[in-house]
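forwarding from the other thread:

> can someone predict this with flavin-adenine dinucleotide?

sure thing
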Amino acid sequence: MVFNRSKLSAMKVTVQSKSGVETFDGGDDENLLYAGLRSGLGLPYECGTGTCGTCRARVIEGDVSIAWQEAPGLAFVKRDKNEVLLCQAHARGDCTIRVPTKVEPIGEALPRPANFRGTIDRVERLTHDVVEFDVLLDRPMSFLAGQFVAMSCEDVVGARAYSMVNYDESTDRLVFVVKRKPSGRFSDWLFEHNISGTQLRLFGPLGRATFRPDEQKNFLCIAGGSGVAGMMAIAAQATRNGYLEHNTGHIFFGVRTLDDCFYTREFADYVRRSNGSLVVTIALSNEAAPQERHPDFPEIRLASGFVHEVAAREMAGNYENMVGFVAGPPPMVDGALRMLIMEARLPAQFIRYDKFG
Ligand SMILES: Cc1cc2nc3c(=O)[nH]c(=O)nc-3n(C[C@H](O)[C@H](O)[C@H](O)COP(=O)(O)OP(=O)(O)OC[C@H]3O[C@@H](n4cnc5c(N)ncnc54)[C@H](O)[C@@H]3O)c2cc1C
Ligand code: FES
């Protein structure tokens, strides 16, 4: 994928959707999803990286090439009907596509995504299989807590989605946390090389699972493993500007064992600053919690069990005026979504999630 703006030639992409007809300039080597979003068109997507199938569209006319022929999201498209994934499709000339949903302009509520270049600036191992690193951008990015970027480097084919851990209205330093996936190409690259100083390409900010302080809601976060990234950004924003003086926050963070925990110091600090309005519980799935509170950080509660089950147990009947955030591995996210729909009975617009798979 090449993000060099100077190489983009004018190719007209026409989008037919339930909202009418729109056009945008499809970049030379930029996929149709990113080119459309960059021009301000709210095309449908979730992962932005080939796995979920949400960006499905039909090519009505013109030549479109596919970057990743084995993308798992292709399981959701009808190839014999000329359907493609917009996040894996590149225009090779003027073309017309049809999207099976409404396509409205992105509007003011979400920052408009753009291409950035960045340099890995600080790398720190948090546990045996979790690494945190900073990326210094070529210019500041504005984003909302809970958003992510699509990141790529020269050494690994394709882009990967990573959620921002830090939050600032506009910043040129982004913090990421990545859990190693067995035989995962990008995470292997992160763990096995000296990545400090490496140049990256980023596209973002992406994602609609965002914290919106103006909603003035109590929030419930359920995260598995590195799914905690976006929850850290939400906690960072919520502990500023007095938000937790009027609302409560509950964060449930699922890991296998106490040794797999990270961000405990940071969470303890957020809890202390919240004067009791923020409650953080670490759920241990593979061992019994040794006690009710974290041995080093008594501000943090410990519990045993899968994180969504712990959340259901602890939150039962306490879902008033609530927005729910879920992120992590797909089976964990599915369990948490079931709980938020069936038990918490939150309306769909107040359930926001990212599936990391
Ligand atoms: C919205 C979202 C936010 C996420 N945030 C985080 C986070 O904060 N921290 C974290 O640890 N993980 C996060 N993930 C998961 C992350 O994007 C990666 O899937 C994970 O790190 C494993 O990547 P890998 O390269 O190691 O594994 P691999 O199995 O090699 O690749 C996994 C993913 O990379 C992409 N991919 C693989 N091969 C290709 C190819 N040839 N061409 C194009 N694309 C390809 C696909 O999206 C695939 O699902 C997030 C996922 C999503 C969808
Ligand atoms: S957004 Fe394209 S497959 Fe998920």
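The longest strand covers residues 114-127. thats all i got for now
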